[in-house]
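We now fix the convention by which a protein and its fold are recorded. These numbers are not coordinates but entries in a learned vocabulary of local backbone shapes. A record is reproduced here so that you can trace the correspondence yourselves:
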Amino acid sequence: MEFLWAFLTVVLAYMIGSINFAIIFTNAFVHRDVRDYGSGNAGMTNVLRVVGKKAGILTFICDALKGLVACLVGRLVFAYLLSTTGNEIFNPVYGAYICGVAVMLGHVFPLFFGFKGGKGVAVSVGIFLICNPIAIISGLATFGILLLTTRIISISSLSATVIVVSFSMIFYFHTAEFWPQAIGAFIMGAIVFLKHAENIGRLIRGEEKKLAVKKED
């Protein structure tokens, strides 16, 4: 029964991730599917370009919140299962990271929107606020500095991802929590990089566009 609860918690995390706010807010603001415009990506950056600041900011906040909620639920449920069974497999750190991967997969491959979602950057902010706050604060600082200097979101996001994954390993290198931190962070970082494959190609060719925010109507 305990494993069933753990499984259902992970499924819930995936379902939370499948609520794609880029699609929801774009439809609410301009009655369009954001995937039919701009880069075709259902994420914050494309919402900024297609709709504007308000929808873009709302998308970022809600995407981050769904990552935070999913990981928090995972941590709390696993902590409860650990307290009732004493089985170390229900370590709350495992719960947070497993649900982190699940919510990111839901965001990238949303069940409710034809498995065509975002790239996982905004949702990872909420995930790591639960899993590793120091790492995500460092990543956000990296993102902000690079965005201000380059105005290219992809290179800012990818650099921040490297920082978050690296710090998730460094800070826990000599602890029992190293492997769940390392494996979970690496998987989520790999998802972000794979979803940015086209951006990486354009960066190599020097063709990646700088951020342009649509003016509000």
The two ends are 53 Å apart (CA to CA). DSSP finds ten helices and no strands in the chain. The longest helix spans residues 53-85.
